[in-house]
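Notes for week 9. Today we move from apo structures to complexes. The key idea is that a small molecule is not decoration. When we ask for a structure prediction with nicotinamide-adenine-dinucleotide present, the ligand SMILES becomes part of the input, just like the chain. The input block below holds both the sequence and the ligand string. Read it once before you look at the output, and try to guess where the molecule might sit.
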Amino acid sequence: MHARFEYMSIDASNGDQKRGPSPSPLRNSKFYQANMRILVTGGAGFIGSHLVDKLMENEKNEVIVADNYFTGSKENLKKWIGHPRFELIRHDVTETLLVEVDQIYHLACPASPIFYKHNPVKTIKTNVIGTLNMLGLAKRVGARILLTSTSEVYGDPLVHPQDESYWGNVNPIGVRSCYDEGKRVAETLMFDYHRQHGIEIRIARIFNTYGPRMNIDDGRVVSNFIAQAIRGESLTVQAPGTQTRSFCYVSDMVDGLIRLMEGENTGPINIGNPGEFTMLELAENVKELINPDVDIIMVENTPDDPRQRKPVITKAKELLGWEPKITLRDGLPRMEEDFRQRLGVPKK
Ligand SMILES: NC(=O)c1ccc[n+]([C@@H]2O[C@H](COP(=O)([O-])OP(=O)(O)OC[C@H]3O[C@@H](n4cnc5c(N)ncnc54)[C@H](O)[C@@H]3O)[C@@H](O)[C@H]2O)c1
Ligand SMILES: O=C(O)[C@H]1O[C@H](OP(=O)(O)OP(=O)(O)OC[C@H]2O[C@@H](n3ccc(=O)[nH]c3=O)[C@H](O)[C@@H]2O)[C@H](O)[C@@H](O)[C@@H]1O
């Protein structure tokens, strides 16, 4: 738990010292059941529900999830429903929310390209109005707020690998822009609230994360390949197949997010696994580990697909003492078990 402190910041426009909001007096109270009230927006989703599991392990934490269930599900949180330190609210972050909390992990936003492109206007509203609403809440109650931004702020990167100083190469009017540009504006809002109102902010730039509880028909590459391999279907590599991604196992991601929230650095900080694979290599790994009988086929790609992506994690290592522990070949079988259970296909 971080120490209580009054946040001070310099207003760049006039050099005045601005006093930020005071954290809630509950943060360090001895008399409450929980010392830290934590809001997790998007907590019914893939990363959010794993984060909730980890936060709930600490008996000092009280966790409130706000989610509209667009891509998340109550099923992901079923073990906590009814727990005295847990509360689940059906809420859309594009509307204001009034709750007394000390920390906000702001994850709410569809993450898979097929879902965020499904209703792009809603996606950009979620990123912009949703983040504005959560910053307004943070300002009112003096909470620290962490935004889960994305490596997609680097767009189709011309610098490889990507460190946090790279400003990116993003198409502002493309089909992915509702997400990429939405997250870029969300980062801007975070820093403007920080500079103007002294809000305690944290920004994580998350790189492709995978693990149990991803939606089976989520459309993201790891969940697609694993579901296809288990069902005995061909693995659909989108052309040209030489595009790269770096895959982080979800428990490593959650550890990184909590360290960022608890530490003293605003970020942005890349959180991801620097092991880089082409999509053909990923398909070959899934085939070898899960079902050697399936074919790998090449299918058409979607517009603006980034050609390469790999995080520089020097900042995460130095400032958070964090680095991923689970390799892709260790992580894929852990995810397979969960997918087999949900698909009802046991391993032969
Ligand atoms: N998984 C990744 O590889 C990855 C990479 C980069 C960034 N991120 C970010 O991490 C966060 C979580 O991603 P995830 O993979 O768990 O995705 P997910 O789709 O499983 O979870 C998102 C959650 O947000 C909820 N949500 C969506 N719109 C909402 C709204 N308007 N109001 C309230 N709730 C809403 C969904 O119902 C879902 O429960 C997202 O912000 C995403 O942009 C994820
Ligand atoms: O990590 C990130 O920053 C971002 O990464 C992903 O976006 P993307 O990398 O495009 O994720 P996928 O849809 O899983 O695609 C990865 C690659 O796999 C390919 N792919 C996808 C699906 C498939 O069946 N086959 C296939 O080859 C795509 O063409 C792409 O090159 C996430 O879905 C975003 O939410 C996230 O913010």
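The first helix runs from residue 46 to 56.
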